[in-house]
Design brief:
Layout (H helix, E strand, L loop, with lengths): L2 E4 L4 H9 L5 E5 L8 E2 L11 E4 L6 H11 L3 E3 L6 H10 L4 E4 L5 H16 L4 E8 L9 H11 L5 E4 L11 E8 L5 E8 L4 E8 L3 H14 L5 E3 L1 H7 L2
Parallel strand pairs: 1-2, 1-4, 2-3, 4-5, 5-6, 6-12, 7-9, 8-9
Antiparallel strand pairs: 7-10, 10-11
């Protein structure tokens, strides 16, 4: 298998390249690179590729989806911060090609989502708060992973997401609070706190290296090669590998 790495010169793009052998790397693409051997526009690539791994920016999602669709190349989207319009573009493109789309490429986070669903079901009347911590260079808040964890809760009970809290209004029973911290060079930490007044359960995942996200993205790319058109995620990857 051969893969195009989009956003190849960024921190995560570099990590992905480290996970690929020389034969597996079809091309490095980065719109902001001046390095020799790096393609600035993916449309300039004329070789063969079995998949695209994208760790660039959500701003390029529409163009990347169009390229992947036109060339019938499976696509892994690992960038975050997508607008509703960009998400719609991903869903439309997934009707033509396989797309793996996840706000977090960690297998551990996928497992955490399943545990959160179970806990939210066991304690249906509990208050649930999510605290996410990342490095101070992260632009989007709340993190896509925090939104994914809140979505896990909403898949098993009604509620609404509230980002941050200020003023004098009381917390409603339906709230799922998300709080964002930005500190130094923290890779990523997510805590889901579930309390019913009698006991509190805290589920935590902490990433110690960006390598785990790169490994997950490469694993996802290999997973969707040969799959029919559709939208795939980490839960499906885990279920498919059991």
């Amino acid at each position: 298998m051969r893969f195009i790495v989009n956003g190849a010169c960024g921190r995560m793009g570099n990590e992905v390249i480290k996970q690929l052998s020389e034969d597996e790397l079809a091309a490095r693409v980065d719109a902001f690179s001046e390095d020799d051997g790096v393609i600035r526009d993916i449309n300039e690539f004329k070789g063969r590729a079995d998949g695209i791994i994208d760790f660039s920016s959500h701003l390029g999602t529409a163009a990347l989806c169009s390229y992947a669709s036109d060339h019938r190349i499976p696509l892994v989207i690992a960038s975050t911060g997508h607008t509703d319009e960009e998400k719609n573009k991903i869903e439309e493109t997934a009707e033509k090609i396989p797309i793996f789309f996840s706000y977090n490429m960690s297998v551990g986070i996928a497992a955490l989502c399943e545990m959160v669903k179970m806990a939210a079901s066991i304690f249906p009347e509990s208050d649930i708060e999510i605290v996410e911590t990342h490095h101070k260079m992260k632009k989007d808040a709340p993190s896509g992973t925090a939104i994914m964890l809140a979505g896990a809760v909403l898949s098993v009970r009604d509620g609404k997401i509230v980002c941050g809290r200020e003023g004098e209004s009381l917390r409603s029973d339906s709230e799922i609070g998300i709080h964002s911290l930005r500190l130094a060079n923290v890779v990523g930490k997510h805590e889901v706190i579930i309390s019913n007044g009698l006991e509190t359960l805290t589920l935590t995942h902490e990433a110690h290296s960006r390598t785990l996200f790169a490994q997950g993205a490469v694993r996802a790319a290999r997973f969707i090669v040969g799959k029919p058109a559709g939208l795939y995620n980490m839960q499906q990857l885990l279920n498919g590998s059991r």
